[in-house]
Amino acid sequence: MRIYVPCDSSALSVGADAVARAIMAEISSRGLSDVTVIRNGSRGLFWLEPLVEVETARGRVAYGPVTPGVVVELFDAGMLEGKPHGLCLGLTEEIPYLKRQERLTFARCGITDPLSLSDYIAHGGYQGLKRARTMTPEAIVEETVQSGLRGRGGAGFPTGIKWRTVLKTPASQKYIVCNADEGDSGTYADRMIMEGDPFVLIEGMTIAGLAVGATQGYVYIRSEYPHGFRTMRRAVEIAREAGYLGPDFDIDIRLGAGAYICGEETSLLESLEGKRGQVRPRPPLPAVEGLFGKPTVVNNLISLATVPIIFDRGAQFYRDFGMGRSRGTLTIQLAGNLKYAGLVEKAFGLTLREAIYDFGGGTRTGRPFRAVQVGGPLGAYFPEALLDTPLDYEAFAEKKGLIGHGGVVVFDDTVDLAEQARFAMEFCAIESCGKCTPCRIGSTRGVEVIDRIVAGQDRARNLELLNDLCETLLDGSLCALGGLTPFPVQSAVHHFPEDFAKLKV
Amino acid sequence: MPLLQETDYGTPLSVINTLVTLEIDGQPVTVPAGTSVMRAAVEAGIGIPKLCATDSVKAFGSCRLCLVEIDGKRGTPASCTTTVEPGMHVRTQTPKLAKLRRGVMELYISDHPLDCLTCSANGDCELQDMAGAVGLREVRYGYAGENHLSAPKDESNPYFTFEASKCIVCSRCVRACEEVQGTFALTIQGRGFESKVSAGGKPFLDSECVSCGACVQACPTATLNEKSVIQMGVPERSVITTCAYCGVGCTFKAELQGDQVVRMVPHKDGKANHGHSCVKGRFAIGYATHKDRILNPMIRAKISDPWREVSWEDAISHAASEFKRIQAKYGRDSVGGITSSRCTNEETYLVQKMIRAAFGNNNVDTCARVCHSPTGYGLKATFGTSAGTQDFDSVEEADVMMVIGANPTDAHPVFASQMKRRLREGAKLIIVDPRRIDLVETPHVKADYHLALQPGANVAVINALAHVIVTEGLAAEDDIKERCDAKAFELWRTFIVQEKNSPESLESVTGIPAAEIRGAARLYATGGNAAIYYGLGVTEHSQGSTMVMGMANLAMLTGNLGRRGVGVNPLRGQNNVQGACDMGSFPHEFSGYRHVSDDSTRKMLEQDWHVALDGEPGLRIPNMLDAAVDGTFKGLYVQGEDIVQSDPNTKHVTAGLEAMECVVVQDLFLNETANYAHVFLPGSSFLEKDGTFTNAERRIGRVRKAIAPMAGLEDWQATMALSNALGYPMNYTHPSEIMDEIARLTPTFAGVTYQKLDELGSVQWPCNEEAPEGTPIMHIGKFASGKGKFMLTEFVPTDERSTARFPLILTTGRILSQYNVGAQTARTPNNIWHSEDVLEIHPSDAENRGIRDGDLVSLASRSGDIALPAKISERMQPGVVYTTFHHAMTGANVVTTEFSDWATNCPEYKVTAVQVQLAKKTSEWQQRYGEMRRQNTRILEDDAVMAHGD
Amino acid sequence: MKPKLMVHMANQIADFFAAYPHEEAVAGVADHLKKFWEPRMMRQLHEYIAQGGEGLHALVLEAAQKN
């Protein structure tokens, strides 16, 4: 008989360890020798964490949020048999928030013991690799192209096409690099996989290695993810001991040094090489000249973690999800001012409104919704009028927005969009690597210009200057940091002009 | 010529052979594949605005001024980082691009001082040029925002300033330090708006910076600027010439205002340096106009008399009459002369001609005697030619470098940078040196093997390496069969396979574990193209010539000759060592290394020179001094050399000079040898004359007159006057006529003319009918002598050994900032880095003697003793001490001995048995010499000067 | 030149050629002396040999007869 207490950072941050300790104490004081506590990943229903599950004949029954103080009470109430209690949520699978999702990449997350290879295999793990091993590199690449998988880091570039370039570039050594420097505000999908289902990433990278002829992989993890780092390291050791990693393909886990820019793939490569995290010009593409000058696949963690299911179920299965040119599922990460923040994996095509209201339950404060920022700190601010935009790369681009890594941050009517625009410039100024001029100087000037606009100095002229600056940033920057900073700024000016003219002059 | 503005192509030249045609602004242009769009545009005569790009470093793509539009490509790619593709259509000027560029420039200027008119780079500033080019008319951000205008100025370096407030953070300096120089002293500190150039967080002077000037060269603004420019303003004219320091032979632009040199700037077209420089050639030029320059001829009856200034005519006729008197009294062979590796080929040629024709004997020698004479001997014996086999650029294809007894980062810094670049690309490195030189471990370079041998064990090491290659079957048998003398090889093979030559047998002699020798031998033999680079640590030994042959054997054995990336390459010490040897400066050889006993050569010269020539070899420098002490050698003409300071066993040198009746010294300064001279002829610096220098790769480069000779005559004119006064007429009106004569009489120079040098920039001899544009790589296909000849190289330990009385071994060398005897560099601010010679001693040897860092210690050998400060260092192994000979009053050569190379008498500078002890004061010799120096350098002041004197 | 130094120099030459077969060695020493030693040095060598040639390498003695 098993009890599941998540070890995901989100659960730990609200006391999951104390809950686990209380449960174990109770087990031992009641002499329940056949009960074991499993530390699983998170299901991503954060308002319910710590979400404790109990294995019953009917299936897993959920209780949450559990505090150490209610543990005795829960045992008394018959939690071990899945009996009712004020905190009982019924069968986990039947919780509507989960039931309405289409979990492909996150199929196992929150269900298994992250570091149990047998758990992983019992839940369909390594089926994709098994199939990939029967295929030629060209066929693996073709299957990936057919699946319609696009880079989940934000750029949305077709993963299979990238792999094809690496496959076709002859070299003595090639690399697979997983970008796990998840720095966008309001995002956590990468972390959840690393903490909750690390083997799926290892399997995905191994398939990528087979596809392009790479024998070494690296996972570059942001320094703010100590748990993810530890779990990944341990998972790699376990996979190696079991022969899933070795001379044919091995993985090293690396910790970043704390810079947003190192999530940009070329800076990440510089950082991996031990250098200052500065953007490299493209071309050459990393696929041609990447890590240590060798052809390199640099993919977002979610892209790579999605690869196993594509190979397990076939390209067609995956591409049947989604809309238009956005195929498969998007891992939406709801955050900000919402009642139900959490991970929602759904096929592309869900509207923003559905995500915010049907899943997120509207604002937590109960105040009217005013703006949502999708795609991290460089995403556009959308007003109410744009909430029917479907989550689809092209649809968002059309509205001058971006999906990015799938982060959705909601604001109520107390937000000041001029402040948010200023924050975007400030963020760019703080996180700029300092290499290209528009970003290095422009972001600082942007803060100053917005301050002058808000202060009512020469407002029209400064708005024009801000617009010109945004153009310089957009077309002139070396990488997406400077290039995308105009998105939040210009969307704020465009959709919320009144916030820039509060001070009457 | 007016100030030469070299074209900046923005990105380096592509080395790809295939061509690509594209269209830029409607204009078709064809360039090598791999070329950047920016460079292609420049080739087509279209300038694209740029700031962070410059053709000495790789494209960086940071300034965002060079953006272009390309049909079929998204957005506005940077032309510096975008490479050309066939059929590409590029537009460099569109309204969108114009607006973008103005937008970027507006940002730059919003954080830049507005002091253009009073800025030291006014008129020589790319930021200023670009602001004009993009049509920036206003900065709407104003100037009140965050900025760096109050960033501090770093003036610590003696030659340039770093004015951070003017920095645009283009990283050109950082990249030049990394890619061009390979020192990695600079970095960008902080990120975003806080990004700033930093010398590792220290003032430049205290940092790893070696003052090569690459950063100053790369800087597009006044941020890194020469102090001389700040002081004098931007130069107005350029003269392209060749550096007068080391044997790398860098091409420089002397940039002047009127007759004032403002700065020396390395020339991008220089084939030895490709636009790079070192602290000496780039900055240490102040000696040329130093107040110590002697500008009037002087004579005196006795060396203890004060000097008396006289006219050129008087000085020349006095010298001539003295030489004639001496020859009449003591015989024709009682006089001789020394040519200088610092002077031009033409001057050197003229001095040896004067000695052979006017003195009528072969008593001519040159300072190569004390450095690379074994190179000439050893390479001639094996390959048939007394010169290195490669050009410098050959190193770009070397897979393994073996550096033996050379310290390139200090002594040949510009070539060292080229080596380091190749090493960073992955070439392997073997270092054979008793001392842990910088190259053993320097940023991004680490030697695969450092064979830290005992001084004096070179030949044992080279034999052990060869033994391993032969006995392990790694020899290039086919190559040997085809190219080498079979009989000599078989004899050699029998010799080398003997067990006594195995690394195991020689371990006790070399001090190197056998396994390391075996590993290094395998790497050299099987690692691809392997090139040997060597210096005076090879030649300045009792077996110097043997070692040169040993290296030549090794290269022949492994087929590492006759193509790029391989060879046996001497790194010559002085600017014109190669040339001085080529010009017939040795007592046994005419120009082109033809023995004086060779009748046909001698007859040809006799006909051309209209004089009878001696067919017996003359005296070498040490022989001259021995003969002087013996009383048979009485008169000496020394042009541009300072044998008292540079030659070994100073007491013996000065005894020889004191025994002479007429010593004529021609030099820029009253050097140490002048203390023993009777006639002083003022010399002309390389800025003051026309001529040629030949560098270590046999490259003949032009020296061009930038200013008039300060003392009235160029050196060749003084020599000519002396010859005429001696009764042998010379009537050249320009050094080009001397070169014409050299070409006429020397087969390897037959094709050399000034016109050709002007056209091609430089040529490498042999330059003749077969190779009209010169010969970068020698011995392609076959050796100059026909068959390569393996020479037996029995290891013979030197007789100079450590004893109970002299238990340590002294070895000598040089450092980056000083040059040779210091005549030039010690008269510049370079002294800030090295103001005195010190004795490097291992901590354990120091501990045993109670010596602490900085203590004054005595250094004594059987020849003599001096005192100098100690520096505790682990660069040497225990039992070995090290010093330099840059400063006269140190007198390092008081300690070195009379022992020399068996074949050439090249002194054994690198091995002297010594004792080191704490000292209370300077040595007796140092005190006596100091006093003598004060006496012997006095110059009589005439009354007028006295009246105004202070 | 001091006789001791002369003997040292001459013997160094002999030490190099000693590795060769005897005939070649003698010829090598003789040739080297002829090519590089100035006449008065050769005179001194011959005079020294005439006085007994103490300390000279056998190859030098043999080679000197050829010059």
Protein architecture, described:
The complex is a heterotrimer of chains A (505), B (950) and C (67). Chain A is an alpha/beta fold and 505 residues long. Chain A has 21 helices and 16 strands. Chain A folds into 4 domains: 98 residues, Glutaredoxin (3-Layer(aba) Sandwich), CATH 3.40.30.10; 203 residues, NADH-ubiquinone oxidoreductase 51kDa subunit (Rossmann fold), CATH 3.40.50.11540; 91 residues, Ubiquitin-like (UB roll) (Roll); 85 residues, NADH-ubiquinone oxidoreductase 51kDa subunit, iron-sulphur binding domain (de novo design (two linked rop proteins)). In chain A, α7 runs antiparallel to α8. The longest helix of chain A has 18 residues. Chain B is an alpha/beta fold and 950 residues long. In chain B, the strands form 10 sheets. In chain B, strands 14-13-28-27-26-15-16 form a 7-stranded mixed sheet, with helices on one face. A 6-stranded mixed sheet of chain B has the order 33-35-34-37-32-36. In chain B, strands 21-18-17-22-23 form a 5-stranded parallel sheet. With 67 residues, chain C is an all-alpha fold.
